[in-house]
Amino acid sequence: MKPDNFQYMAALAKERSGLVLNEDKVYLLDSRLMPLARRKKIETLDEFVESVRRNNDFNELAEVVEALTTNETLFFRDTKPFDLFRERVMPEIIASRAATRKFRIWSAASSSGQEPYSLVMLLEEMGAKLAGWSYDILGTDLSMEILNKAQEAVYTQFEVQRGLPVQMMIKYFEPEGAKWRFKQPYRDRVKFRKANLLENQRGLGTFDIVFCRNVLIYFDRDTKSQVLDMIADMMPADGKLFLGGAETVLGLTQRFAAVEGVKGLYQKAG
């Protein structure tokens, strides 16, 4: 790929989404953008980027950024954070929110919905422990295409079998042709909306628990700090933050502290 075309795409991705593209990420441009190029009957990545640069069309630029930032996910991804959520965080929430009997969760960069829907299933499985409680889950993402998929909640057999126990698949999903749809009552537990973490999202309100997993790894240091500080502003004093296994707050912000002995879970500091 021509250096000037790569620099253009790297600048576009950084400005619109915070995604940092190094030169070793040319493969990402090829895998994510060539399907768009083929749709336009363009044969090479350089030709496609040059066409995008010439057109400078807002909708086309948005489509390119969506293609670059859409990430694969699965139900109960990595398992451990969901175990921590059920066994450590929720008992604390039940104890500390006993007066109001309600709480809010934000799934930032929720992709096609597997993370927030996994949380719904875990909360529903708690049964009597949450009798009389209410909760809100908000899933946000940069891509409207992926948010539409999340709201439709229709997944292939392969998608529902990855990480999802059979008993949960039967309980929470219904067949729809060759695919599976997350059942309506549980689907209604989650609201989705478009949100860019590079922009001020404080208007979304306060969240007791935030999942922002495998997002910061794509940002530069300053952007990571800004996003973490924004999230801290949106949480109560005892708020809990889940990050990905390769992510940390160390050296980025003093607004969060690691929960001792637990990888990937942070609590609001001070």
**What global shape is seen?**
globular
What is the total domain count? 2
Fraction of residues in H or I helices: 40-55%
Q: Tell me the name of the CATH class of the largest domain.
A: Alpha Beta
Distance, first to last CA? 48 Å
Keywords:
alpha/beta; Rossmann fold; three-stranded antiparallel beta sheet
Present the secondary structure layout.
Blueprint: H1 3-17, H2 26-39, H3 45-55, H4 58-69, H5 80-96, E1 102-108, H6 114-125, E2 134-141, H7 144-152, E3 154-155, H8 157-161, H9 166-172, E4 173-176, E5 179-182, H10 184-187, E6 190-194, E7 209-211, H11 221-233, E8 240-242, E9 256-258, E10 265-268
Parallel strand pairs: 1-2, 1-7, 2-6, 7-8
Antiparallel strand pairs: 3-5, 4-5, 8-10, 9-10
Helix pairs in contact: 1-3, 1-4
Short structural summary:
With 270 residues, the chain is an alpha/beta fold. It is built from 11 helices and 10 strands. It folds into 2 domains: 3-69, Orthogonal Bundle (Chemotaxis Receptor Methyltransferase Cher, domain 1), CATH 1.10.155.10; 80-268, 3-Layer(aba) Sandwich (Rossmann fold), CATH 3.40.50.150.
Notes on the protein architecture:
The protein has two domains: 3-69, Orthogonal Bundle (Chemotaxis Receptor Methyltransferase Cher, domain 1), CATH 1.10.155; 80-268, Vaccinia Virus protein VP39 (Rossmann fold). The protein is built from eleven helices and ten strands. Strand 7, helix 11 (221-233) and strand 8 form a beta-alpha-beta unit. It has 270 residues and is α/β, with parallel strands linked by helices.
